[in-house]
Design a protein that fits this description.
Elements lengths: L1 E8 L4 H4 L7 H17 L3 E11 L3 E4 L3 E6 L10 E6 L2 H13 L4 E4 L8 H10 L7 E7 L4 H17 L3 E7 L21 H13 L5 H14 L7 H9 L3 E12 L2 E10 L1
């Protein structure tokens, strides 16, 4: 089967917790639009990589069949809680673990009650599949993996999807520029923390509009090298690894999340 579609969604919880705040309305509207579009395609699985699920030693893959609870974000806890429910495609997770180990990337599945699901995954799936009808494959962001190895992880997930004959939607969950505003603000005054960040974000978004895979890779690496970005843009590496037929990008929304940059992007697939 195939990769149906691919998206970048922000993982910051503030737009979810304050959807009517003016600076965040475009992000919320775009996330809701993407969620409806994904549900309409009825994929077999969501392939998720969030820059907020950190792994340090092994590469981790979520392997718990069902996970539910109420999440309290470690940074933005005073803005509210995040109820969540997720289902995992355990067969696909097991195959990704096996394929990654065979490729020399030491991996394991995590399967225990109460495992701390990251905020980004909860925020993104809240927009895309709030009723947890679509199984997920969730890969951690290993802090020691570079852009190239992360792209390799995406390729492993893609190959596993194809081997199992499934239809998948790819979700990269993360931000753009990573500088936050370091003092209290009125939320209605949120803005990109630095003018240089805003310029770099806009340059990156313009560069990828008509970029193929090679162009997207070059734009992401140049952007990450010139600006403080979320995890070196490894969430874009996940997109590149899972999707080998990128033909541009549709930037649906761009805006601040307490000074950091965020965007909602659909990647065009040939």
């Amino acid at each position: 089967m195939t990769i149906v579609s691919a998206f970048l969604l922000p993982g910051n919880p503030l737009p979810t917790l304050h959807p009517d705040n003016a600076p965040w309305r475009p992000l919320v509207a775009a996330c809701n639009e993407v969620g409806a579009a994904i549900r309409a395609t009825k994929p077999d699985v969501l392939l998720i990589y969030s820059t907020q699920w950190y792994a340090v030693l092994d590469q981790l893959w979520q392997a718990r069949a069902e996970i539910a609870g109420v999440h309290v974000d470690e940074q933005w806890h005073d803005h509210g809680d995040l109820p969540f429910r997720l289902r995992t495609d355990t067969t696909l997770a097991a195959e990704c673990v096996a394929r990654a180990n065979a490729a020399g990337i030491k991996s394991k599945g995590v399967d225990y009650d109460g495992f701390p699901i990251d905020t980004g995954t909860i925020v993104a799936t809240g927009f895309v599949d709030p009723e947890a009808k679509i199984p997920t494959l969730i890969a951690a962001c290993n802090l020691y993996h570079d852009f190239e190895k992360t792209e390799g992880l995406g390729a492993i997930a893609r190959d596993a999807v194809l081997a199992q004959g499934k239809r998948a939607v790819v979700l990269a969950v993360g931000g753009l520029s990573s500088n936050y505003i370091d003092h209290d603000i009125d939320l209605s005054d949120d803005h990109i923390a630095k003018s240089d960040d805003d310029a770099a974000n806009r340059q990156f978004l313009a560069a990828i509009t008509d970029a193929d895979g090679a162009g997207l890779r070059m734009a992401a690496l140049d952007y990450a090298a010139s600006t403080g970005t979320d995890m070196g843009m490894k969430h874009i590496a996940w997109i590149l690894g899972t999707c080998r037929n990128i033909r541009g990008a549709d930037v649906k929304a761009y805006g601040p999340t307490y000074g950091a940059g965020a965007a909602v992007i659909e990647f065009k697939l040939a």
